[in-house]
Amino acid sequence: MKKLLLCFSLFTVLFSHAQRNSISTTGKWGQQIFLSDVNGQAFVNKYEGISGSVYDQTEYQLAKIILKDGRVYNDVKTRINLLEQEVNFIASNGQEGFLGKGMASEIAYIDDKEGIQNVKVFQCGFPPIDNQNRISFYQILLNGKTSLLKSVYKSIQERNNDMSGERFKEFATYENMYLLKAGTMSRIKKDKSSLLVLFQDKKEAITKYIDDQKLKLKNEAHLIDLVKYYNTL
User: Fold this and answer.
1) Average pLDDT rounded to a whole number, residues 52-74
2) Distances (CA, A) of 207 to 193, 198, 218, 227
3) Backbone angles phi, psi at 110, to 5 degrees
4) What is the DSSP letter of 129?
5) Which helix H or strand E contains 210, and what residues bound it?
6) Burial class (CB within 10 angstroms; exposed 0-12, middle 13-18, buried 19+) of 229
7) Torsion sign over Cα 224, 104, 72, 59
């Protein structure tokens, strides 16, 4: 009897807790996820009147979300706020919510086009460098012994309208490439001499590969190819 009373009391507490949360997520997860469970909050638009977009993409896209505590949720309409480093999503009832800074450790967008699956992965938790810290998201261009990461972040800038002379605000986008090697982050300057410093231990092989393959180091695909080759040495 005591066990029945305890179960009933626990159910009552959980049901009351669920009722207080207006945004929940169901569907393919097979369970209800309430914003309070992940420190999520209802979405509020703080960027009225600012030109451009604060997000990594204009439209929401289906993604897998991995939380810092290891929980995994699939097929969530998601996008990343690149100013606040927060994850926005749409719940099953159509309302928008967001996960606070540092709550999500990985976002993996999965795009199926013409039978070809393309996965774009963003992660945080890397060593601080420049304006980035451990809650800053990076796109993982190559994951390996040495990883190639891309940082894209936004800031709000004020400018003058050349025609009217009035001041206006807009989002400015900044992009940098980084190497993660032996636990150390290094920003990449996209020129041969700078990259040879980063690959000093295999300088001769890297020089030959750049020359033989005629790599253009400002090209993202060529940079990925170079780091992939370095990982084989």
Assistant:
1) 90
2) 9, 12, 16, 12
3) -120, 115
4) B
5) helix 203-213
6) middle
7) negative
Beta bridge partners of 217: none
According to DSSP, the residues that pair with 3 across neighbouring strands are none
180 three-class SS: strand
- Cα–Cα distances (Å) from 160 to 46, 93, 103, 167, in that order, read 22, 41, 37, 5
Residue ranges of alpha helices (H) inside 142-202 are: 192-198
Question: Which residues lie below 8 Å from residue 120, measured CB to CB, with a gap of 6+?
Answer: 108, 109, 111, 139
pLDDT tens-digit readout, 199-216: 999 999 999 999 999 999
* pLDDT surpasses 90 at 231: yes
Report how far residue 125's alpha carbon sits from residue 191's, in angstroms, rounded to the nearest whole number: 27
Residues contacting residue 177 through CB under 8 Å, at least 6 positions apart: 141, 148, 149, 150, 151, 187, 188, 190, 220, 223
Q: What is the pTM of this model?
A: 0.80
Q: Which residue has the tokens 């180091």?
A: 217
For residue 150, name the pLDDT band (cuts at 50, 70, 90).
very high
